[in-house]
Specification:
The complex is a heterodimer.
Chain A (H helix, E strand, L loop, with lengths): L2 E8 L2 E10 L1 H16 L4 E12 L1 H18 L2 E5 L3 H10 L1 H4 L1 E3 L2 H8 L1
Parallel strand pairs in A: 2-3, 3-4, 4-5
Antiparallel strand pairs in A: 1-2
Helix pairs in contact in A: 1-2
Chain B lengths: L2 H8 L4 H14 L3 H13 L3 H19 L11 H10 L2 H9 L13 H7 L3 H10 L21 H14 L8 H5 L4 H12 L3 H12 L4 H10 L5 H14 L3 H13 L5 H10 L3 H21 L6 H27 L5 H12 L5 H10 L6 H12 L19 H10 L6 H12 L5 H14 L5 H8 L4 H14 L1 H12 L4 H14 L1 H13 L3 H10 L5 H14 L3 H13 L6 H10 L2 H20 L9 H20 L6 H4 L11 H12 L5 H18 L2 E2 L8 E2 L5 E10 L5 E6 L4 E5 L13 E11 L5 E10 L1
Helix pairs in contact in B: 1-2, 2-4, 3-4, 6-8, 7-8, 8-9, 9-11, 11-12, 11-13, 12-13, 13-15, 14-15, 14-16, 15-17, 16-17, 16-18, 18-20, 19-22, 20-21, 22-24, 24-26, 25-26, 26-27, 26-28, 27-28, 28-29, 29-30, 30-32, 31-32, 32-34, 33-34
The chains are: A alpha/beta, B mainly alpha.
Chain lengths: 114, 783
């Protein structure tokens, strides 16, 4: 399934716009981009799932790993936004949400991180 | 972790979760609400480890509230921080660990072991481990192994977390102990670690955890499922949905199924929905809807989604109608004309759908009695019953009994005043025309009208089994708790219809208990009971009874029962039945092999016709893959790994276990009213016979047949070949070359016993498929 990850910078906040189907493959690609940004000293992230069609279990496992990497190893902050209710429930169940914050819209996520 | 979640975790019953939450409070806690909670917790916390961490957590949160958390200006470089940490007091070490200056722990990773060694106490050691968890140097992993046996739970858990992530192979020898840990977080981590060493066994442990009795364990299993391959997790989740009743856990399993949409799942879930209570049915139908929505959203069928939905809808019509037809055919023998009229009327209302009519036409080829075939033929020739004539309500009392039954069967608008009056008229004289009252209860139930509980109580005492059954089903929906208290009475009924209805009611409320009742019926040495149990299985989601049925068929290879049981596989074609049927074909006696093979081919063809198998599926290629899978399974059974489910939880093998005390209890319950002098005399005779029965016999005299064992005592004389890590299980080979596993309390067996000759008195309870005799230890003499 197709996917794309677009990185935008808003001051010191990295916005990762994810579209398509989020599987382990997407997770690997996102992890690689995040790793590069962490090395550059970036520790504030917004994951925008507005154009993401679906997230499967391996995808959720990959996001959990990425969130743990940012939160635990770099004491960074992550806000996840524009999730459909199914994805929100999945993230809540597997423990992503206590580690990352959530916001309905991108604007709210940016305010949270400022 | 937000403070709200920290507080939630602090209230969990498992100490490891509370320790984890306390660590999070130390690292990030910053609200007054959390501080207040921590203050209250000091008075109630019973874990000494949590008590150690509590003051640190309170101090850290308090500091953040007044804005003073920092190790100070001197702690600027990484080298300084490390040196400072090593020389600091416990409070100073905590302050460094939670300071934002330590933002990038990767820089400090090479000195992680130094930090660990310098930690002033276990609480700080645990914090060091969690701080460096993801960056712990590969070369220092061995340092962590001894920590798996630390007296501190949080140190053990955090060390395990690192080893699981970095090098699970290092903990292979510790897995049996970790997998059986009483602490849930520890156990869940161990399953994740096992997944990278032996996926089959990890899945077996996952499934076992998912089917445990506690909600926390089930939730932990659902959470770790994302780390396991979903195609293997999916059948476990479907089975879980079939037996689970907790609505919130069902919804969580549904989230996983919808997030990983599989086009075959809605078919399997529909069967479960049909067999569930109305509350559970609503949840399962929601899950089906979510899975279908995701199939459409992801366009996973490459534009064929519309055709798929149509096919699913048609299948649902067909399946629902055929399920009802099958149930009614079972009720035909002994049914009165009024009952048959009601059945015909209900089935005819399905005929307006072409799919259903076609299914009924095909049902004329079912291998059923001539009486049943006539019933189906008559149905096929009939016109569709549409709706009840609205004007009839006014003249209801003037109708004949058959006209009344036909009218009430077709009612479907509960709010109409006329309809309410008709129900009232019938219920006022509930015992007068029992078949009509039975029809009224069933129709009221269908319409969700719960106003007649008082009348159903009266109807329960009717001698008419049709009315009694209808009242049971009605009360199960509208007076559940009250009915459950007296359900045992109806489960023991000699009337098959009442017994079946009671079992169905029990299944809807407590599937585990209902399955135990089925198991009990299969355990009795009575072929009639075996047939009844198998016929009762039609009231269960097939995925939930399939394991029990398979084990029964493999252990009791009577040809007649085998055929009866296999009918259920034919009636419920399911991709998850294919490999189990292949395995069964290899396990049954020779005369049954061809029959199982035919059923396997039939199920595969049915699934292909319904497009429920991959387009390139080939039964011959599949057989080759299954043979490989079967060989691997047999190899594992012969040489089970110490961390395997059968070694760590041998009780999972006891599907048909029945102890003598269960048997005595059952006999007492059945005959307690006749517990008199006569019984005592007979009992004395039993005691005399028992002296012989209970006398220990030599293992050499035991005939090896897989399944449950009725033997009460056995002497095993053999050489010790292996002992498990916890000293709980010992493996011996007796003088006849027979293999034994003897289970005792933890620490009974020591490694020094390996290769010694032992003589044991044991209570055998099972022989597994490889001939391994599994027993409970009684006493022993070491030679």
């Amino acid at each position: 399934m197709n996917f794309s990850i677009v990185h935008e910078q808003n001051k010191d906040i990295c916005i990762m716009r994810i579209s398509g189907y989020f599987s382990s493959e997407t997770g690997d690609a996102l992890a690689q981009k995040i790793e590069e940004l962490l090395r550059k000293g970036m520790i504030k992230f917004v994951f925008d799932f507005a154009d993401c069609a679906s997230i499967n279990s391996p995808g959720a496992a990959a996001i959990l790993d990425i969130v743990l990497r940012i939160h635990d190893d770099f004491r960074g902050k992550i806000i996840i936004t524009n999730l459909r209710s199914l994805m929100h429930n999945l993230f809540e169940m597997v423990g992503i949400f206590p580690l990352a914050g959530s916001a309905e819209m991108l604007e709210a996520a940016l305010i949270d991180l400022e | 972790m937000h403070d709200r979640e920290i507080i939630e975790n602090l209230q969990l019953p498992f100490a490891s979760f509370r320790l984890f939450a306390l660590e999070q409070a130390i690292k990030t806690g910053n609200t007054r609400e959390l501080l207040t909670f921590l203050d209250q917790m000091s008075d109630t916390e019973d874990s000494s480890e949590c008590q150690v961490l509590l003051p640190y957590a309170k101090a850290a949160v308090q500091s953040r509230l007044v804005g003073s958390v920092s190790v100070g200006e001197n702690a600027d470089t990484s080298a300084n921080i490390s040196q400072k940490f090593i020389g600091e007091s416990d409070d100073g070490q905590i302050a460094i660990l939670i300071d934002p200056v330590l933002a990038n722990v990767t820089v400090q990773a090479t000195r992680a072991v130094d930090w660990l060694k310098a930690a002033k106490n276990d609480a700080i050691a645990a914090l060091v481990l969690s701080t460096f968890a993801r960056v712990w140097p590969e070369s220092e992993l061995e340092e962590l192994k001894p920590l798996l046996f630390s007296k501190s739970l949080s140190v053990r858990t955090n060390a395990l977390q690192i080893l699981i992530q970095k090098s699970p192979a290092l903990i292979t020898s510790n897995l049996p102990e970790l997998l059986t840990s009483k602490d849930l977080r520890f156990r869940a981590l161990a399953i994740r670690g096992l997944a990278s060493i032996d996926m089959d066994e990890a899945l077996a442990h996952f499934d076992f955890l998912l089917n445990s009795a506690s909600s926390e364990k089930k939730l932990a299993a659902l959470q770790i499922s994302i780390h396991l391959p979903f195609d293997r997790v999916c059948p476990c989740l479907v089975r879980f949905i079939a037996v689970e009743h907790d609505v919130s856990l069902l919804a969580k399993a549904g989230v996983l199924l919808a997030s990983n949409p599989d086009p075959d799942v809605p078919f399997r879930l529909w069967e479960i929905a049909l067999q569930s209570s109305s509350k559970k049915q609503a949840v399962v139908k929601n899950i089906i809807r979510s899975v279908c929505d995701e199939i459409k959203i992801t366009r996973m069928l490459a534009g064929e989604e519309g055709a798929y939905m149509l096919r699913l809808q048609r299948w649902i019509y067909r399946y629902s109608a055929l399920t009802m037809l099958r149930e009614y055919i079972d009720l035909l023998p002994g049914a009165s004309d009024s009952q048959i009229l009601e059945m015909e009327t209900r089935l005819k209302s399905f005929l307006k759908n072409d799919e259903t009519r076609e299914a009924f036409v095909e049902a004329q080829n079912w291998p059923v009695s001539e009486n049943a075939l006539n019933f189906i033929r008559k149905l096929v020739q009939a016109k569709s019953e549409v709706v009840a004539d609205k004007n009839t309500a006014k003249s209801f009392c003037a109708l004949s009994l058959n006209e009344k039954i036909r009218y009430v069967t077709l009612l479907d608008e509960p709010d109409k005043r006329d309809v309410t009056e008709v129900f009232q008229t019938i219920m006022q004289n509930v015992m007068a025309e029992p078949d009509l009252s039975a029809t009224a209860f069933r129709t009221a139930l269908k319409m969700g009208c719960g106003d007649f509980v008082e009348f159903s109580r009266t109807a329960l005492s009717s001698s008419n089994t049709n009315l009694q059954s209808a009242a049971l089903e009605y009360m199960a929906e509208f007076a559940t708790d009250e009915l459950l208290l007296k359900l045992g009475l109806y489960l023991k009924s000699l009337d098959l219809r009442v017994k079946r209805t009671a079992l169905r009611v029990l299944k809807k409320q407590d599937q585990d208990q209902a399955l135990s009742s089925l198991k009990a019926m299969l355990l009795q040495n009575d072929m009639q009971q075996h047939h009844s149990a198998i016929s009762c299985m039609v009231h269960f989601p097939f995925s939930s009874v399939r394991p029990l049925l398979l084990e029964f068929l493999q252990n009791f290879p009577s040809l007649e029962l085998l055929k009866t049981g296999l009918c259920l596989f034919q009636a419920n074609p399911d991709p998850d039945s294919l490999y189990p049927l292949f395995r069964l074909q290899r396990q049954v006696a020779s005369e049954g092999k061809a029959i199982v093979g035919e059923v396997l081919d039939f199920v595969a063809e049915s699934l292909q016709a319904e497009n429920r198998l991959a387009k390139d599926f080939s039964i011959n290629a599949a057989r080759q893959d299954w043979q490989k899978q079967y060989n691997q399974e047999q190899e594992k059974l012969r040489m089970p790994a110490p961390y395997s489910l059968q070694m760590t939880f041998p009780e999972t093998l006891r599907a048909f276990k029945k102890t003598s005390s269960d048997f005595i209890r059952e006999i007492y319950e059945r005959y307690k009213s006749a517990f008199n002098v006569y019984f005592v005399v007979v009992a004395i005779l039993f005691v005399v016979a028992g002296i012989k029965l209970y006398w220990p016999v030599s293992s050499a005299a035991v005939k090896v047949v897989s399944g449950a064992i009725a033997q009460n005592s056995l002497k095993v004389d053999g050489k010790v070949t292996m002992i498990d890590a916890r000293g709980e299980k010992i493996f011996l080979e007796d003088t006849e070359g027979r293999k034994h596993m003897v289970v005792a309390s933890r620490g009974t067996w020591s490694k020094s016993m390996i290769n010694t000759q032992l003589k044991l008195a044991v209570t055998p309870f099972r022989i597994n498929q490889t001939g391994l005799v599994i027993s409970q230890f009684q006493s022993f003499d070491k030679r």
